[in-house]
Amino acid sequence: MIHGGRSQLVVIGASLGGLSAIPVILGGLPRDFRNPVVIVQHRAVHSDDAGLPEALQRGCPLPVREVEDKDRLVGGRVFLAPSDYHLLVEGPRLTLSTEARVLHARPAIDVLFDSAAASHGDRVIAVILTGASRDGVGGAQKVKEHGGIVVVQDPATAECRVMPAAAIASVAVDRVLALDQIAPYLVHLSLAASR
User: Fold this and answer.
1) What is the mean pLDDT of residues 106-121?
2) Annotated catalytic residue: which of 119, 133, 135, 190?
3) Which among 15, 83, 115, 119 is annotated as catalytic?
């Protein structure tokens, strides 16, 4: 569980192109990465991606699981929002919601980022990846308002540049990084926080 000290919470949002981008980040994390990683990937309600957690697990040294309501937030684990549910961070737990779609999405990146910022303040590291909507922009602003860090994939390396470009245009982001530079930066932040 994350608590006290400078333990951090990594939240990642992706849409179109995310199924290719997320494995690059997860595959770049070391087995001893100490922070929890919580992911919203836009998923169609009747999509045929039931095997997504297993697919992400193949290249990731950390345990990957799809969230069940009231799951405990544990360091060194990857948590994935299920299809058609918003995913929220509420203190030491992850909760699911079927409230209205946000920017046509459920799960929505803004819902995850907003709740993480409210719950964990300046310990949040939000990552916005490739995508075709503005989802994540409002949530990234909330993360910044609470003192957290916002990292955005360089649109030049994104399969769809709309979402990262919208974040860069609207938020005072901390880093714009090529996809393959994001995991090393997350590791750097984790190590710096543990000193």
Assistant:
1) 97
2) 135
3) 15
- Cα separation, 105 vs 122, whole angstroms: 26
Q: Cα–Cα distance between 86 and 44 in angstroms, integer?
A: 13
How far apart (Å, rounded) are the C-alpha atoms in residues 183 and 129? 12
- Give the pair of three-digit tokens for residue 133: 């909507």
**Whole-angstrom distance, CA of residue 170 vs CA of residue 56:** 30
CA separation for the pair 84, 42 (Å, rounded): 9
Mean pLDDT, rounded, for 125-147: 97
Known catalytic residue: 104?
no
Q: Which of 92, 101, 105, 103 is nearest to 38 (CA)?
A: 92
Distance CA 23, CA 17 (A): 11
The verdict on whether 15 is a catalytic residue reads: yes
Q: Higher-confidence residue: 192 or 96?
A: 96
pLDDT in tens, 29-86: 999 999 999 999 998 776 556 688 898 999 999 999 999 999 999 999 999 999 999 9
Give the mean model confidence (pLDDT) for residues 133-145. 97
Residues forming beta bridges with residue 127, ordered by sequence position: 12, 151
Catalytic residue chosen out of the listed positions 7, 42, 110, 115 = 42
